[in-house]
Design brief:
Length: about 150
């Protein structure tokens, strides 16, 4: 049986990361960085655990991928993330010069597109990959959070 390494495959891996965040009480956002069809970084939100507002899944993934590659630029890399990056993460992705960003759910309030965040001119961005699955996990998290308060 051949496995098809397409956008859905890699987004499912990011969703697994988001589910791990959910289990840890973090906002369930997950990310993976891929180069040449290989995952070189996996991450999820760690803002509560680390008590750090910058510990978003994308920031963790950028750091892990840079360490793996031994350099600060993520040329020829694709970030798969379950939620559209925020302005902070968009800025970091700009400086990383990542080649492509693929996200699941759109963030209509804080997303980089909504806020007009400039990405690197060579970076391609595309959303909506497994958006329903990504969005459902976020909705479930916030419903449970509200019910606990």
């Amino acid at each position: 049986m051949d496995i098809e390494f397409d956008d859905d495959y890699f987004m499912k891996k990011a969703i697994i990361e988001a589910e791990m965040a959910f289990e840890q009480g973090e906002v369930p956002v997950g990310a993976v960085v891929v180069v040449d069809q290989h995952i070189i970084a996996r991450a999820h939100n760690l803002t509560e655990l680390l008590n750090d507002v910058t510990a978003h899944a994308e920031m963790q993934a950028i750091t892990a991928a840079s360490n793996f590659l031994g350099g600060k630029y993520l040329h020829n890399c694709t970030l798969y993330v379950t939620l559209e990056p925020c302005q902070m993460c968009g800025g970091a992705l700009y400086w990383s010069q990542i080649s492509q960003i693929v996200y699941g759910a759109k963030d209509l309030e804080r997303g980089c597109a909504t806020l007009g965040t400039k990405l690197h001119p060579k970076t391609k961005i595309r959303g909506g990959v497994l958006a329903e699955e990504s969005s459902a996990l976020l909705k479930r998290f916030f419903i449970e959070k509200r019910n606990l308060n």
